[in-house]
Amino acid sequence: MLGFVIQRLLQAIMVMAVMSVIVFCGVYAIGNPIDIVIPPDATQDLREEAIRRLGLDQPLWKQYLTFAGNLMQGDFGRSFVYNIPVLELIGGRLPATLELVLISVLSATVLGVSLGVYAGYRPDSWLSKTIMAVSVLGFSVPSFWVGLILILTFAVNLGWLPAGGRGDTVLVWGVPFSFLTLDGLSHIVLPAINLALFKLAMMIRLARAGTREIMLTDTIKFARAAGISEAVILRRHLLKLISIPIITVFGLELGSTLAFAVVTETIFSWPGVGKLIIDSIGVLDRPVMVAYLILVAFLFVLINFTVDLVFALIDPRIRAGATE
Amino acid sequence: MTPLARFWSEFRENRIALVALVVVVLVVLLAIFAPLITPQDPYDMTGLSLMDARRPPGFVGSGGYAHVLGTDPQGRDLLSAILYGLRISIQIGLAAGGVALTIGAALGILAAYAGGRIETLIMRIVDLQLSFPAILLALVLVALLGQGKGQLIGALVAAQYAYFARTAYGAAKSERRKDYIEAARATPLSTRRVILRHLLPNCTPPLIVVATVQIANSISLEATLSFLGLGLPVTEPSLGMLISNGFPYMMSGRYWISVYPGIALIILIVAINIVGDQIRDQFNPRLRK
Amino acid sequence: MKHMALLRPAAVAIGLMAGAVAPAQVFSQELVMGVRGGPESLDPHFSALGSHAEAAKHIFDTLVWSGDDLQIEPGLATEWTPVDDDTWEFKLREGVKFHDGSDFDAEDVKFSIERIPVVSGPTTTTIYVRRVKEVEIVDPLTLLIHTDGPAATLPYDFVRLFIVSSDAAKDYSTPETAAEGFNSGKATIGTGPYKYVSWEPKGDLVLERFDDYWRGEGAWEKVTRKEMPNDSSRLAALKAGQVDVINYVSSVDYLALESDSAVDTIKGDSVYIMNLQLDQREDTPMVRAKDGSKLDANPFRDMKVREAIDAAIDRETMVEIVLEGLGKPANQMMPAGFFGSNDDIPMPEYDPQKAKDLLAEAGYADGFEVDLYCTSDRLPGDGAICQGLGQMLSAVGIKTNVNAVSKTVYFPAQGRLEYSMFMNGWGTLTGEASYTLGGLAHTNNPDVKMGAFNRIAYSNPEVDKLLQEGATTLDADARRGMYEEAMAKTMADKAYISIVQLQTVWAAKAGALTFTPRFDEDTLAFFMKPAS
User: Fold this and answer.
1) Is the ipTM, as predicted for this complex, more than 0.85?
2) Which stretches are annotated as coiled coil (chain C) (predicted)?
3) How crowded is residue A83: how many other Cβ atoms within 10 Å of its Cβ?
4) What is the CATH number of the domain that holds A197?
5) How many whole angstroms separate alpha carbon A77 and alpha carbon A287?
6) Per-run averaged pLDDT (10 residues), chain A, 324 residues
7) Closest by alpha carbon to C3, among A158, A181, A159, A190?
């Protein structure tokens, strides 16, 4: 087991190193921020001064080494636009995004798995067909469109919920959370639904497919033949068997939801990192873009690593096969 | 019965999937023949009049015909704009899906066939990319490459080829392990034959499933990027661009500019996904009784 | 605002006990503003962006105040006079206090001016002090500003010269420390109407009233400035009651809002004017015959072609249809009433037949093809106006391919002179002509620091001469005449064709507040009064 962990850890470090180079070069090689950051009317002197100040006069490899060196010390550089450390900028907005993502993915998973298992267990029932129809819709309708419709319906026409922003927050261990206040909760409902819908559809489909497959296997047939009650079959066999793909997807989706939050945050003016990155792309604020992408990559690597570990704990075969 | 006929007769059993297929075919036909059907070429500036701008459905404009779905802020007939928009969306979906399929399948099969270092290298890259959200990748690429069809397709391909590579690799790898291929590999001349006759056909069913999903995804992703202001030029609006252009008018009650293109987009994507679902179920050997 | 109703009885009770205090001052008055853009930092000297200065004006004061119509008024300086060709004397206001209770004096002004070049960010604020050579303190309330030659527009330069406290900002005046000191509130000590409470970049700026403000006490006890860049979200937030007032109501929502009884709209003229710009170089890249072949000459160098383009533009339709009423036809690059605008310039007439005839006379009976570029995400309606132009020009035979692109694409390419025909919004942010004409109409010449924005190689020696004279003439009336003449000559050449002047709309909860819209579109809490 220890060998497996070390192997995966080394891989993760490699991946991060490669990612940092790709992201840095990708973002830095294309797109010149200088024309965006300084006014279109700046004189040549001011332009050169700005280029020098932002360190853009150095060759790319030198810029990367400086960047990597700083990165080692946990310094992602300063935002071109805000002139404050990028980490501070992102860190200040991360709780909002994490809160939104966690609430969305958790509720999508709990609800999605229950609905999906039901739909797979009774594939021909009327309710199952409705569930599946909803899931196809949730899977297909672009999330920005859902967001627009949600705002139009619940915020503008009905006036039940706020259209955007985060609302009041409460500090828990120094981190602001909004779901603990009524005002905050009312703000998070629409974006969370918006973000969760796609994941919900996905979880339903996954759970249904898994359930259908497993219900047709010999294990279940034997169990039924042996007279084990349906409830026990569902609990003991089914949930256990579908839990592996669900855990995997939960982990992976946590990351991709983080990415999709970009769209939701933009529509609902949610003050998270997703909105920050869209704005930063708009003004080519390179340090923010690079730091965000690297942090997302890090998160992904971390999640993959964790999923691998959990897998290995659940399923010894994977541990054995890891050195193949 | 040939496998294709059997496949079809099974497909027909699912009424909803059948309807969805008809819808997909119909939409594609409408898009292909849009120039013949539509009352207006929405991209020809001389045919537009600002006097017709933002008129509600049914308005008879300066062209002398009724705008069945109303007009957009530039005086375009929305029905025409939607059909032309469908053309662009489908074009982009197919082009991005097609290129991603080709590159992905080639890489996946190559990795499975070659094994060793090449396999490790390709699949490491693919896994790395898979773990990275497609939308973010596309977003950053489009932002950096600039606006335009080519750039957009490039970004979508870069964001999606990995799914195909993973799928092709999985299917090819399981076939690759079989003894007859080991044997065939011993004779150097037959490499092409092994790939074309054995590995590729084996990968086809799962690739088709992924392709349907990914084409729908490309269309949806394109619309999302356009909505975020990173899509195609405004003068040749795709569905996403039409929706995004029309959205500001929603609050002032001029819903049609955004809602109808949105409905067209959703119908297309939902139909493709239903068809894709059915194909997936039919290809899934574990669901066979 | 919701809890205001709850607070009211208690406040009234306290008010009754206090007896003499007027009720309006006792009520907890809170103003929540939803604004499109916010500051990039709370260091007022960091950025020259409009939204940055707008936020800074809540906490800090400027030396010279720019009024609602952008004409200069006393601010922290009460009067200014040129004492000789390159020296201005500024008298400072007496009795002004900083938020920490300390006195404002000449030392703070000198400190602020000298601080700017050190801490300015990429969107540089050094333009406000570029002419200053030296600051000399005569006494605590008198300053001599020595300039690098006659600087006629110096007072205009100072309308965004924010004064920070030399004591509080002393330790936060290097590029590394400035943001930390100001964003945390430690150095955010101004003389302005509101005091810093908290700020989140791209989020909320929370402020509380400064009771000793020299203009008098503001109406709102607490002000929150929420940054909401999305037009629809901002409007939705107003309709949902989350904010009291929003700026930049989109033209698409304006008509519907006007008839909405829950919302008040306030419409004001904007400084921004959309100008069509025609490249005057002999060889221009984005023009060709309709069959794609190269033209013998750049058609835009032909006066007849420029006149034809001017006549092809239907400004009324542009305003009524494209902007849905939120604009005015424009005939020059500055709004009427600005220093140097010319009232005698006629409004061009829309005459498509004349346009076709002129094109034929110029030898382009079959027209030609051109790529028109503009931004789609910078100013309200920019992309739509551009597409409207495409239709109008196509209608007279100039096949126009419209490229409404993101500003991140547009400005770099425009700077590289890649465009032949482009539409650009220009705001005369200083309220006077040397900024606009000096930048756009003068031949590009770094030696005299003029023509830096002239991206079409426009060059008229007479205009150049007038502008150079104007820049060194300290007599305001004589200078005004020179700029008016330069404006007339520039517009007559039709290389710059002004199309529409934008208008800006604010929206507020019905009956919540009143204010006078400002030309520079600033949304300033201090000047908003609760509607009794």
Assistant:
1) no
2) none
3) 24
4) 1.10.3720.10
5) 6
6) 79 80 74 64 64 75 80 79 82 85 88 86 83 83 84 78 73 72 82 89 84 77 77 75 75 74 83 82 79 81 76 61 42
7) A181
Q: A75 lies in which domain range?
A: 1-81+291-324
C-alpha B133: how far from chain center: 17
Residues A52 and A164 in one domain: no
CA dihedral defined by B7, B8, B13, B16, rounded to 10 degrees? 110
Q: Which residue has the tokens 């909105």?
A: A275
Provide the domain count of chain A. 2
DSSP states along A141-164: S-HHHHHHHHIIIIIIIS--S-SS
DSSP H or E run through C369: strand C368-375
Q: Which of A113, A129, A105 is nearest to A204 (CA)?
A: A113
Tens-digit pLDDT profile for residues C79-122: 999 999 899 999 999 999 999 999 999 999 999 999 998 888 77
Query: Average pLDDT of C146-173?
Result: 91
Same domain, A92 and A227: yes
CATH 3.10.180.10 fits C29-262+510-530, yes or no: no
Question: How many angstroms separate the CA of residue A303 from the nearest CA in chain C?
Answer: 29
Whether chain C has a CB inside 8 Å of the CB on A190: the answer is no
Domain boundaries, chain C: 29-262+510-530, 269-503
For the entire predicted model, the pTM comes to 0.77
Q: To which H or E segment does residue C388 belong?
A: helix C382-395
Residue whose pair of structure tokens reads 């503008």 in the numeric block:
A156
Chain A partners of C43 at a C-beta cutoff of 8 Å? Answer: 83
Are A100 and A63 part of one and the same domain?
Answer: no
Residue C95: CA atoms inside 13 Å, Cβ hemisphere, count?
Answer: 5
C interface toward B at CB cutoff 8 Å?
Answer: 231-232, 235-236, 239, 250, 252-253, 255-257, 317, 321-322, 376-377, 383-384, 387-388, 390-391, 394-395, 399-406, 408-409
User: Is residue A138 located within the same domain as residue A278?
Assistant: yes
In chain A, which residues have their Cβ closer than 8 Å to the Cβ of B135? 259-260, 262-263
Instruction: Report yes or no: B77 and B38 within 8 Å, Cβ to Cβ.
Output: yes
What's the pLDDT score for residue B24?
Answer: 93
The encoded tokens of residue B144 equal 């950096």
3-class SS letters over chain B: CCHHHHHHHHHHHCHHHHHHHHHHHHHHHHHHCHHHHCCCCCCCHHHCCHHHCCCCCCEECCCCCEECCCECCCCCEHHHHHHHHHHHHHHHHHHHHHHHHHHHHHHHHHHHHHCHHHHHHHHHHHHHHHCCCHHHHHHHHHHHHCCCHHHHHHHHHHHHHHHHHHHHHHHHHHHHCCHHHHHHHHCHHHHHHHHHHHHHHHHHHHHHHHHHHHHHHHHHHHHHHHHCCCCCCCCCCCHHHHHHHHHHHCCCCCCHHHHHHHHHHHHHHHHHHHHHHHHHHHHCHHHCC
Which B residues, 181 through 210, put their C-beta within 8 Å of a C-beta on chain C?
none
Q: Does domain B14-40+68-287 sit in CATH 3.40.50.970?
A: no
Judge if A258 and A301 occupy the same domain: no
Cβ distance C391 to B247 less than 8 Å, yes or no, reads no
Q: Determine the length of chain C.
A: 532
Q: Which of C507, C506, C524, C508 is nearest to C1 (CA)?
A: C508
Residue C264, SS3?
strand
List helix spans (H) across chain A: 2-29, 34-37, 44-53, 60-72, 86-121, 126-140, 143-150, 182-215, 218-225, 230-232, 239-267, 273-282, 286-314, 316-321
Domain C269-503: homologous superfamily in CATH: Dipeptide-binding Protein; Domain 3 (3.10.105.10)
